[in-house]
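[Automated response] Your request has been received and processed.

Submitted sequence:
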Amino acid sequence: MQRNTYISTAAAVVLMVGGPVAAAAAATSGAAGTPSAATVAVRADVDATGAAEAAVKHYPGTVVSLDKDGAVWHVDVVGKNGKHAELTVDTRSGKVFTEHADGDDDDGDNAQEKKQLLAAKVNAQKAVKAALAAHPGQVRSVDWDDDDNGGARYWDVEIQPKGGGATKHVHVDATTGKATVSSSDSDSDDDNDNDS
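Generated structure:
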């Protein structure tokens, strides 16, 4: 009976200190040492929105791009101080590391691009939400881009559909937030996207 009281007290302390995530982590294993469902749920990867939020919390500013590469997100941010930073966000822990930060990218086109990015009504996080509403799946990358013909700015969100298949590029208008699945879908990385 006293053992049950100790266990209940320990569970209450875990809930007070760490909330539901810590409680799920405390439920470490089932019979035979296999992870319980609660433990597996705690191990979910950081998604694009989580990576963007972690990056701007670490380096306040505006996200320019996100790209998932294995167990990390590469996130480019224009800081509130005007400097550009390249950050890495671990998909498991959410920890953010600064790879490179500088302020030497303000020449001509880059200064104009930065000005348009900072003035955009739709940021990367909103673009991800709009793109996923139009085409559910897992976000692989988000890039600030422009229309080669008219120079209109938009977010290019690459999404891997649920159940597999070719990735889809969803263009999200930087002013209205309207999402449109691009006709130039591809199952390769962004390296080939600008060849059209």
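Summary generated for your ticket: The two ends are 72 Å apart (CA to CA). Helices lie at 2-26, 37-42, 48-58, 108-119, 124-134.
If you did not submit this request, please reply to this message.
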